[in-house]
Amino acid sequence: MVPNTTDSRAFGKVSVVGLGYIGLPTAAFIASKGIPVVGIDVNQDAVDSINAGTVPFFEPGFGELLARVVEDGTLSAQTEQIDADAYIVCVPTPFREDHSVDIKYIRAASEALAPYLKPGALVVLESTSPPGTTEDMAKHLIELRPDLSLNDEDENAIFVAHCPERVLPGKIMEEMENNDRVIGGLTPKGTQLARDLYATFCTADLLLTNATTAEMAKLTENSFRDVNIAFANELSLICDRLGIDVWELIELANHHPRVNILQPGPGVGGHCIAVDPWFIVSAAPEEAKLIHTARNVNNGKPQWVIDQVLKALEGKENPVVAALGIAFKNDIDDLRESPSLEIVKRLGVDNPQLDIRVVEPNVEALPPVLSNLSNLTKQDTEEAIAAADVVLLLVNHRQFVGLDQSLLDGKTVIDTKGIWR
Ligand code: SAJ
User: Fold this and answer.
1) Which of 172, 204, 236 is the last residue in one of the domains?
2) CA distance 328 to 332
3) pTM above 0.85?
4) CA 269 to ligand 1 centroid distance, Å
5) Which residue of 21, 108, 235, 333 is most buried, as measured by CB atoms within 10 A?
């Protein structure tokens, strides 16, 4: 392994494009090593918040770091692109109706930065992307700047690489520095230069490969997790039919030294595990059978939970449901692709007679998809449980894990995370 020593003077200025959950912490970590970083984002409100030293989303411990690098002037944010030695592109890569990737944000980022590129510049794509996207981005850059080259030996060469992000939301402060990184250049110099950039702040192993393998490595990691969770979710349906406690079962099976089953839940959410496997399925539909099935199993879980709730409410007059948690996972405020939010929305829309009390300690107000429904209200935990016939636990937020369980006496409890066993 090449040690992570580097000459950070090689990077006089770094531009990080897209200041979301990944781009902003990446920018702040690089800035914390004394390298001037300018963050670029199309959202003026996010830019203003960052320049005021305030994180526009919730991430434990990150506020202090951001405030420090903004205050000392190493990190600033703006909407206009700049002339930099290295660009890191961290923009969203959503999927379309047919599950193929939509690279419009990568295209837009390339168009914004191309005019500023100079020979020797490095462009790293961090956005999770199907195999071939980095190469496609590089070709697009050369179309926009035919005076530059992708050949390492040319004087007018630029360097392009892929380095997928791997941090777990909620643990970014720890994982940004300590997670091994996979780095794949389009050319050997691209790989090397990208390695030097990540060595400025990452203390773990920097694993070098080519761009396409790096792209596939990221999709593979998240698909592995999705398939494992699908296995757990399928077990939860089997156990429900057979009258077995699935959480006890998994705990017992995991005592085997070579078994490590993840946990069942109301479904799989977030913008990563629920999305990335589709990029493999759409790149190789004939072959990706297991990965495709796992997606379907996990996507089917919300409807199964809804059916459980409706069964529990059969025969009840003026039924009230307390729905605990709408974030996509515990102890965060992120609602993207959240199965819990989907369950609450579908219950509310399809059952106007249901009175649903929604509890979500991590958000100030319900999102419009829920607040627009007249049979839904946001309440605090105790109030909602007291009013409810059915208590539907959807997210294992710490407030719910630590709940005084005597509050549940006399209620029908549907615990999708197995925290109150
Ligand atoms: N979930 C379960 N059961 C489990 C674990 C998770 O149902 O045992 C659910 C969660 O509730 C959530 C979803 O899966 O709805 C995803 O949560 P997560 O904690 O597994 O993952 P993310 O989406 O927050 O972050 C993942 C991580 N990838 C892997 O662990 C392989 C992270 O390291 C990546 O950086 C991130 O995706 C990403 O951006 O790709």
Assistant:
1) 204
2) 8
3) yes
4) 8
5) 21
